[in-house]
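thought: fold this chain, then report.
action: predict
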Amino acid sequence: MSLFTIIFIAVLAAKILMEVWLEQRHSRYVQSHRSAVPGYFSHAISLASHQKAADYTVAKIRLGHFEVLYGTLFFLFWTLGGGLDALDSFWHAQTESPVWMGLGFLLTFMLIVTLLDLPFEIYRTFVLEAKFGFNRTSVGLFLLDFFKQMLLMVLISAPLMALILWLMDSTGGWWWLLAWGLWSSVMLAMMWVYPTLIAPLFNKFQPLEEGELKDRIEALLERCGFSSQGLFVMDGSKRSGHGNAYFTGMGNAKRIVFFDTLIEKLTPEETEAVLAHELGHFKCHHIKKRIFTALFGLLIAFAILGFLGSKLWFYNGLGVLLPSNHVLLVLFMLAVPLFSFWLSPLSAMVSRAHEFEADRYATLHSDGKALASALVKLYEDNASTLTPDPLYSAWHDSHPPAYIRISAIETRLKEKPHG
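observation:
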């Protein structure tokens, strides 16, 4: 057994143990606070809603335990178990073209992984989400969505992967830099394409109706100096009872979208405050920072790929006998989460800081009390636990815990007359 194999197994085991330990802490903490609504929220959230959120959280954790075990077994099958080697041998027998061989290998791998994940998607949608009253997806709609996603995966991924494989095979030692440029360009282009071409394949987007809400939103946009290509309501209710609002696209393609479930649950004043929070992400340059971070992360990833491409120990240490460009891509994709997992607390910390900044922006440009009441409603309607384990939350949660977040809003409201 090689040194890299030992390191690989040790990191995998450490990741699994840490995941399970954090989840068990979280489950115990949530259950230990299930019997009473935290005093801060007792005036706004019923005990039944609080207990529903606790049970929903614990149910998701239990499903997560099975997913970790299931995923680990197939992870080991693909690597040390020889799964990738067997798939590579199959495609070597089909064609001698490195690009066609690699494309077939990658698409087959993606198809198999998607099908292996399908049972969990089915259970999550039709059992877990349905049990807690969130699922509104029919079997027919689920299947239609699945086939649309598969078709898009092929139409978008296949040309991109073929070009990257060609670059790897034809452009020498600096292929990774060219591949990074190609991947980054496609990623940025998708931000323009998604709102107008892809999202409408899955949902209907209707212009926001005239009335108090639209008047409020347009006044908010004018105060914030934000221009968009329109205000839209999305029929999120045909799939789920969860509510949300977001803006999407870049440049002239920006559009603001409200889930119909959100508009049903919040007052116009609260909806305005939620949108002000989303605008805060834009005005505080969080979107640009996230794009830059993603592009920089991709650059580092492709540079590491360029380094590992000629290292036989990397392939052999992960159970692959013959080096190849397409196997390199899959091995790297499988290995990266093992190491990036340990950066999760840093990522979560940055994300929570952005949420605080966006909340502050919202209190300056809308009614902060309405933002706080909207968040309480969303926590209740989405069955988000009010009592997450602090360590689990610090590791995983991109948003601050409810009490801390709303306390920060109220502190800002007290300071607002003087600042």
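thought: worth noting. The mean pLDDT is 91.
final: tokens above.
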